[in-house]
Amino acid sequence: MHTNISELHSPASPRDARHKELAARLSLLARVDGLNQTRFAPLTLSRATTPTQRMPMVYQPSLCVVVQGSKRATLGEEVFNYDPLNYLVVSVALPMMSQIVQASPENPYLCLRLALDVEQISTLLLELDKTRTPVASRATRGLYVSRLGDSLLDAVLRLVRLLDAPQELPVLAPLAVREIHYRLLIGDLGHRLVNLVAGGNTQRVSRAISWISERYTQPLRIEQLAEAVHMSPSTLHHRFKALTSMSPLQYQKQLRLHEARRLMLTDDLDCAVAAHRVGYESPSQFSREYRRLFGAPPRLEITRLRKSA
């Protein structure tokens, strides 16, 4: 039996009712614009009542489901749009441009983010029947957008419902998260997650990303990094760029600039001190690269952010 598009989104459809319930619950749980923490640490909620400008940020490995409004993520020259019909999966930490496209006081942008558990993905792969195990693909970007199916919507809604049942949350939330990971793995693009845990070049690049993240303030030698993850420098460069759209040095630079921005904004550090803290020896180089990424010199950009907060 086939369901046509009009039935799928009609007011009487079960899917529509579940989506409305999810939006209502997030509206009550995420009461302020920005990030809202929940009782379940891996799950965070976002709210916005106005569209935003394109802003650089580092996406951590996660599932992002927009429940109301829409958002756009840009990685290099590629644009990824996601709304209530689609979800975004990020498999490795990626510096990107982010923009909320649709939001208003009457219909605020609402989104939930669930941190991905790599160990759980590995365990599920071992448990899946061979006929259902997705096959690893060739090197692809470390993120993708896919359609939000009914089964995944149900699992996400069950997890959000548990936020109103604090006694049940510690016992049942891990089960809901396990199902969510399972639904992602058996979905149309589940093979993209397999790359993260199944060994091979993608997993080695993921280790390279972790290696850089742990040492981003130190000078980066590609030969040393390649040796640490058991790849040749040329293969590392090629695979790293395929996954992240940037070279290892560009990736390190973005991590440094993002952290310097955070230090200036939240810890009130002077730009020269922040630059030195993240590994820059030349304040003028820091200022040039900061302006190239964020669109304005450090002091001016931070002042604008504080005024708009």
From TrEMBL:
One of its GO terms (molecular function) is DNA-binding transcription factor activity. It comes from Hydrocarboniphaga effusa AP103. It holds the Pfam family AraC_N. Transmembrane segments: none annotated. Keywords: Transcription, Transcription regulation. The keyword Protein biosynthesis does not apply. It comes from the Bacteria. Residues 206-304 form the HTH araC/xylS-type domain. The keyword Transmembrane does not apply. This is AraC family transcriptional regulator. SMART domains: HTH_ARAC.
